[in-house]
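Minutes, project check-in

Agenda point 3 was the complex the collaborators sent over. CS summarized: four entities, 748 residues total, and the question is how they sit relative to each other. Sequences were read into the notes so everyone works from the same version.
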Amino acid sequence: MFETNRPPTIRDVARAAGCSVATVSRVLNGKSNASAAARDRVVTAAEALRFRFSETGRALQSSRTRVIGVLVPSLSNPVFAAAIDGAEAVLRRAGYQVLLVCGNYDAAQEAAAVQTLLARRVDGLILTVSDAAASAALDEARAEGLPVVLLFNEAGPGDSSAACDNAAAAGEIARALLASGHRRIALLAGRFTSSDRSRRRYLGLSTALVAAGAPEPVLLEVDYRDEDHSAALAELLDQRPDLTALVCSNDMLAIAVMAGLRSLGLRVPQDLSVVGFDGIAIGTMLAPSLATIAIPNADLGREAARLLLASLGQRHTAIGSNQAGPPRARTLPHQFRPGGSLSRARTDVRCGRYNARSDAHPPTSCHMNLENDP
Amino acid sequence: MFETNRPPTIRDVARAAGCSVATVSRVLNGKSNASAAARDRVVTAAEALRFRFSETGRALQSSRTRVIGVLVPSLSNPVFAAAIDGAEAVLRRAGYQVLLVCGNYDAAQEAAAVQTLLARRVDGLILTVSDAAASAALDEARAEGLPVVLLFNEAGPGDSSAACDNAAAAGEIARALLASGHRRIALLAGRFTSSDRSRRRYLGLSTALVAAGAPEPVLLEVDYRDEDHSAALAELLDQRPDLTALVCSNDMLAIAVMAGLRSLGLRVPQDLSVVGFDGIAIGTMLAPSLATIAIPNADLGREAARLLLASLGQRHTAIGSNQAGPPRARTLPHQFRPGGSLSRARTDVRCGRYNARSDAHPPTSCHMNLENDP
DNA sequence: ATGAAAGCGCTAACAA
DNA sequence: TTGTTAGCGCTTTCAT
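CS then shared the predicted structure for the full assembly.
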């Protein structure tokens, strides 16, 4: 009555079925051959005891856990949620479980999280790190000789990855903006130290604008954790009233920025155009809808899982070798998605003073032609 | 050169340090006393080998995995992401890791997912199930005698839970609507079979409306997976042009509904008021902002984790007992959050025909007084 | 202070 | 066809 309810072990089943543990293992694993009689007794006993193999025991004996460690910066960005969903589905169908950890856009936390995954002896890793080019977490994983696939991070020569071409995608934003007459553009970006994607998007945007003869974009790095960017926005727009478009390094930020602009009494897209990056579903439901780069986030997760499974397969095939096949970098296609948040650039400069706390006075416009750059 | 890189074991460290595995264990776990000399040799050897205890070995010997299984319906609803974040932080600080699985709002998938968690021998479970009153997943967990805390599901007598009072919260929506003159109200709800929260919210809304002498709300159950509810919305509004307010059983749905209304050429809140439920951050960034019930989602996750840790503690204290302390149901406070999506009810009925595919003709209004109910 | 050895649950090699 | 047993990595008791 008052005993600690330890789960039944294979020995309990063997005892109840009147056979050895080997027979139980064979029957319940569908291996080799067992007499119909034994089979029956084992199955019956197992069901009666509600027996379930201990994955711990199996892991110890086989030195494979059938667990994949997944590290993402955060769960509160739907981009990562979608990618995890995709990866998890593929891995589950292959018999793997996902041990999920968050790095919170912080290299130290990422390294600590990977440590815990390594201690759990995960069979492989899918990682989104702050900066793939200098990541303690990634170094640890590599040192362990474990199959690793980067997700969202574009891999260097030695690593596998599933990502999009951030710079090229940002270039498409530049083209779309230029086509609508924008030249005075700012990028609100998550801190580069927290996200190499953010940095690449900046470089891609900047390069494309300059190549087209437009000025470099103004850069404003913001913290991923903040939700209210009104103050930073106000200062930026105060200093640069000539800006006609704001690009945001991701859609969540873009949504916050649109809200911030609204609270400053500015209209999107009449006063300022806004473009995001990621293509999260909610962007299409906004008014105005969010112009953005659509990334196949769930597909990226699926692809990362597939690459990892491939490594895992080779690893077991190529006996005596630590090689998991050559690294494979998969780049999935992006697509510019038009939206109501992007319209033709104003040709006059905003010069009215607006106030973050007052929504009574929308800014006035004065006719100061901007057609020629400095 | 070509050897499979098995992680070093405690025996490797012992050999390198010239001592027994027991000494290594003691030193590296900071237990009892070891000579300074031995200590040094062990630490040095461990570092040189990059040794890390195998949690698999530890789990097998201690029959505790230090892993908590967490089941949620989906990652794509920020509500669950926030709760997971909260729970994970509390658990991590207590030395536990989270094994996350998704049930996809489906009882069968939930049961299968819990099976995998039980096979991993998790030390405890935090579950959000479709229907806590009839859940195979929950039954399995209970049968295993494992500490379980329900999250978002309001527990029955025997279970622990961290939830809000869904019916009471829905009652507050009713009050807010009535105060603004609404009486003809519909609820768009996630399928009751997929969410007992959805059902309770319906009951709470209905009860409060009827108690106030208003008609029962029209109920429209929708699938959580769908993103476009325009067709269902169009049909509903066609049949019931007298409706003045739409309540949605969660914020994500409300956002989709607002987008759907817009595509039907209807304005929020002028033509219809919309109220959500959950209080996700994005709701405050919309135009109009979303009126809703704010739930402390991250706190719910934290609280679930705390309750579970308490059970775990008692479980180890009360030797020889399977009791994990009495079940504790924690109800966290909700709060109505006003928003631009809710305004005073129209007093005329929409009678113009609108078309889902045409945004050219906003519906006309005809003056047909609705003050007296049938 | 240190070591030897049992045992946690399981699989697979080997014996019968 | 079935059973016996070693061993996966670790902690802990019991000797020494």
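Noted in discussion: Chain B has twelve helices and 14 strands.
Follow-up: revisit at the next meeting once the mutant set is ready.
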